[in-house]
Task: structure prediction
Amino acid sequence: MIDRPIIECVPNFSEGRDTQVLDQIAAVIKEVEGVSLLDVDPGKATNRTVVTFVGEPEPVIEAAYRAIAKASELIDMSKHSGEHPRMGATDVCPLIPISNISMEEVSEYAHKLAKRVGNELNIPIYMYESAATKPEWKNLATVRSGEYEALPDKLKKEEWKPDYGPAVFNAKAGATAIGARDFLIAYNVNLNTTSSRRANSVAFDVREQGRIKRKGNPITGEVVKDAEGNPERIPGACKAVKGIGWFIEEYGVAQVSMNITDTKVSPLHKVFEACRESANKRGMRVTGSELVGLVPLKVMLDAGRYFLEQQQRSTGVAEEEIIKIAVKSMGLDELTPFDPKKKIIEYQLNALREAPLVKMDLRSFANETASESVAPGGGSISAYVGALGAALSGMVANLSSHKRGWDDRWAEFSAYAEKAQSVKDTLLYLVDEDTQAFNEILNAFRLPKGTDEEKATRKKAIQDATKFAIEVPLQVMRESMKIFELAEDMVIKGNPNSVTDAAVGALCARAAVYGAYLNVKINTASYDDKDYVDEVLSECSETLQKAIDAESTIMSICQQKME
Result:
C-alpha cells in the first residue's frame, strides 16, 4: 500500500474528576481532520487523565497543540491535588512512532510542537526521552523532580531553563514535558497458579531488573553487595521489560504483569516465550495472556510469523491469518475476546478510511463496476486484476512450501509467498485509491471559478488531482511488474501441479500493467507539466514492453512444462 507515517500521542492531563473539562479537551482533538481519538482514561484518585489519539504527524501535533491550549484554559494547577506526580495542566505529552516513521523524525515533530506551545501559550517546555536536549533530561522523573510546587524556584536557575517557552512560572498551567518515546505495551501473562509469590518469581526471571543476588538460598540468603555497598542483581532475560507478579481475583489466576518499553529489543512473542520457559522450570504453565490497551500491527505480525516459523510453515499468508496464529499461540483470547479491529492501532485508523470497493464481496464489486456510475472503472479493475495475479503467485508458493518431499524448501517458498502477499496488499489498496483519484478530479472541477483568485485555486486543485490520478495507475504498473519475477520462478521452481496457476498470474499482471498504462496516458493529456509528462510516458512505454515480453516468456515456459 501507499504507506503513510502514523504516530500516536498520549498526553496526560492533570484532571480526572471533572468530566466537563475532559469532554472539552476531547472535543478539540476530534475537531482535527485525520486524527482518531482512541481512548480517554480518567483516574479519580490520581486526578489525572490519559488520552490516546493517532494519525499522521501534522494533524496529530495540531490536535496536541489544541488539547494543550484547552487544558491550560480550563485547568488551574494552583488548585490541583492528586496522587500521581505532576507539574502541569498538560503534564506530559509524548509522541510515539507507530508505522513508517523513525524515532528521529518523531523527535523533530516533538520539538516543532514544543516550540509552538512555548511561544504561543507561554508555557515552559522541557523535552524528554528521545527528544531530550540533555542526557539527564531523558528521564521524566528527573525533569519532573519537585513537581509543580518546585517550579517557581527551578525556573530561576540557569540549569533549569526550559527548552522552549519562558523561564517564568506559569501559576495556572505549570510546565509541560514533551517528548518522543517508543510504544509501551502493557502485557499480562496468565499462569496456572493462584500464588502471587510464584508469579513474582517468573517476573524476576523475565524483567530486565531481575532479582537481588543472594548467597546460598535465593530467597532468604544474605544479600550480595558491590564495592559501594549496593545490592548486586541477577538480570532477567528480557531488556526493556518491567514486571511484577500479582493475583487477579476477577479471573482467579495469578499473572505476570509487565510493561514492554521497547519491542525492538524485546518483541512481544519473545517476552511470552521467556515467561513460558520460566514457568515450566518452576512447575507451572502459561495458560494465556492479555494485552491491556492497543498494540501496533507490526508487533502482532512479528509474533505470528515467529510462531509460523517454529512450525516450519510459510509466513507468506494473509495478514488476518498471521494475526490469528499470534492470538492463538499466545492465548490472547483466554480471558476476554481479542478483536483485532479494536486492539490494533492501524486497524482503528483503517476503519476511518473509506475503502468501499475492497470491502465488497465479489458479486457486489462486479455489480458496482457494471452500474451507470463512471467509477470504479478501468483503473480500479487494473489494480484488482494485478492483486489476483499476485495472489496466484503466492498460492503456488504456499502450495510448494508444503509439498510432500520438499520439507527442506519451506523457507525458500515462504519468502516468495511473503513477497506476493506484499504486492497483493498494495494493489488492493490501490483499487480504492484509483476511484479516490477520480473523485478528487470531480471535486476540483466543482470549485467556484468566479474571481481570479478562485480560478487560480480551482486550476491548481485540478492539476494536483490530475497528478494524483496519474501517479496511482503509475504505481499499479510498477507494483504489477513485480509479479512477473514471482510468476516465472513459480512456473520454473514451484509445485509442478500448479504451473498453470502461476502462468495465469502472469496474464493478470500483463492486463494490470496494460490497463494502468492506458489510465496514465489518458490522464497525462490534461496535465500541464510537459517535462513530467514526457518522463512518465517514457517510463510507462518501457514498462509496458517489459510486461509484454515477460508474459510471453512465462507462457512459453509454461507450454514447455505442460508438454
